[in-house]
């Protein structure tokens, strides 16, 4: 299945749930409202903790398994789980055992980025539905393989961009579609986060309890360093994608959703390390531009790490530009508009306001996004997903394209139908990677 902007546009109409419409799928797993859904969480350090609580906040959903290559982390989370919920939970080190467990119905994936797509593919092949953290992929090619697997095995796959389940953000997108700020021609993504010096701790022995081979998975095996485990892998190319592929996926996704576009035809990017003499490989500062000449639209994206300004009060969010005004999205759950050259305040909204008015159905935020996922699982209907697998691939791919343009140091021409660069074999090599057995993303899923 290939992705084109035209195909993406056909799927991108805003529905009542604010979702990109994906085809309905049919599965042998059918859950009634009173049937318990058993869940496993893969990667329980950091964001995985939110996955545990969001699953447990759903009706008739039980987290039965915690999986992490670091048994120290998994053991601590299991102890905290018992203290909070009064229940034992199974601890598993190898995610392949989770895939083999027939009692597990759904999984969530909060591993490092380099594991995301392969974990989704394995889950689909095992007949399980999956919630995957952003970014859905570590590179463009494996993101497409993830989409193919979800379609082939008729699985429900939700991407962890919870702003898509925000009633306020859904309302904002509807305003963009209706021309409230006129013809929308540009989107801007902002990631102004405080990212400090991580130093360079050098190489050391692998800590007891950590299966470093499993942690490394599809990536090349490197000597162990505390600069990777458990968070700073984000700033190393073999495992992470920098901040545009970390926090920034929320904003790349919002840019594409709001502009109603797929992948671009022209990409340029410039940046670098200007602040810290540490071991980060990814740029601290990055400016990327994505051009859609056929749609006459453009995306600008900014990553800044330190001592920066806000834009209309926003440090993490989006700004949309129309010929009659602008629409500003602050974070995950509120927006405001300014109309005309005098910037007259226009319509605004937040999840709190919409929920207080009784107009919103269910929760927003991470709990609301998990609720949307569980509803789709119970109905086995991917058309009601707010963050379906195709959007996971495309919003992640946008970040990857910006990183490739930065790493090649030139303006790139891209064919969004073929998902290949135009006459650029060097850039094409960066669309995928060499995988390490037995953790290879399969060509034929």
UniProtKB/TrEMBL annotation:
Residues 347-356 have a biased composition (Polar residues). The lineage of its organism: Bacteria, Pseudomonadati, Bacteroidota, Bacteroidia, Marinilabiliales. Residues 37-160 form the Gfo/Idh/MocA-like oxidoreductase N-terminal domain. InterPro entries: Gfo/Idh/MocA-like_OxRdtase_N, Gfo/Idh/MocA_oxidrdct_glycsds, Gfo/Idh/MocA_OxRdtase_bact_C, NAD(P)-bd_dom_sf, TAT_signal, TAT_signal_bac_arc. This is Gfo/Idh/MocA family oxidoreductase. Residues 340-363 are annotated as: Disordered. PANTHER family: BCDNA.GH03377, OXIDOREDUCTASE FAMILY PROTEIN. It comes from Maribellus luteus. GO terms for molecular function: nucleotide binding.
């Amino acid at each position: 299945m290939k992705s084109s902007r035209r195909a993406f546009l056909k799927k991108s109409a805003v529905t009542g749930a604010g979702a990109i419409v994906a085809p309905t799928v049919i599965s042998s797993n059918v859950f009634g409202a009173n049937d318990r859904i058993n869940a496993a969480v893969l990667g329980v350090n950091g964001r995985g903790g939110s996955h545990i609580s969001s699953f447990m906040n759903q009706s008739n959903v039980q987290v039965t398994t915690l999986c992490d290559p670091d048994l120290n982390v998994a053991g601590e989370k299991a102890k905290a789980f018992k203290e909070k919920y009064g229940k034992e939970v199974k601890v598993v080190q190898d995610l392949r055992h989770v895939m083999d467990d027939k009692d597990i119905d759904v999984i969530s994936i909060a591993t490092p980025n380099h594991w995301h797509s392969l974990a989704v593919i394995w889950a689909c092949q095992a007949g399980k539905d999956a919630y995957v953290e952003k970014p859905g992929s570590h590179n463009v090619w494996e993101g497409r393989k993830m989409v193919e697997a979800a379609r082939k095995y008729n699985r429900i796959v939700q991407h962890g961009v919870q702003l898509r389940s925000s009633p306020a953000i859904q309302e904002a997108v509807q305003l963009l579609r209706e021309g409230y700020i006129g013809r929308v021609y540009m989107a801007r993504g902002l990631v102004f986060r405080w990212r400090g010096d991580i130093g360079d701790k050098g190489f050391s022995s692998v800590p007891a309890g950590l299966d470093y081979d499993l942690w490394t998975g599809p990536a090349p095996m490197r000597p162990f360093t505390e600069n990777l485990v458990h968070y700073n892998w984000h700033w190393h190319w073999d495992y992470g994608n920098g901040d545009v592929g970390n926090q920034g996926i929320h904003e790349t996704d919002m840019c594409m959703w709001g502009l109603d576009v797929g992948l671009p035809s022209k990409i340029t990017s410039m940046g670098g390390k200007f602040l810290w003499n540490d071991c980060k490989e990814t740029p601290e500062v990055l400016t990327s531009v994505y051009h859609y000449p056929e749609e006459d639209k453009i995306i600008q994206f900014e990553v800044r790490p330190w001592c920066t300004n806000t834009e209309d009060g926003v440090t993490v969010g989006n700004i949309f530009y129309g010929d009659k005004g602008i629409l500003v999205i602050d974070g995950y759950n509120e927006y405001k508009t300014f109309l005309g050259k005098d910037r007259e305040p226009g319509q605004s909204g937040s999840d709190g306001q919409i929920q207080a008015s009784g107009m919103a159905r269910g929760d927003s935020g991470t709990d609301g996004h998990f609720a949307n996922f569980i509803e789709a699982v119970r109905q086995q209907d991917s058309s009601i997903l707010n963050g379906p697998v195709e959007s996971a691939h495309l919003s992640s791919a946008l970040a990857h394209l910006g990183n490739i343009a930065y790493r090649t140091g030139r303006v790139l021409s891209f064919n969004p139908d073929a998902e290949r660069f135009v006459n650029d074999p060097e850039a094409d090599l960066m669309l995928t990677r060499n995988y390490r057995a037995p953790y290879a993303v399969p060509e034929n899923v």
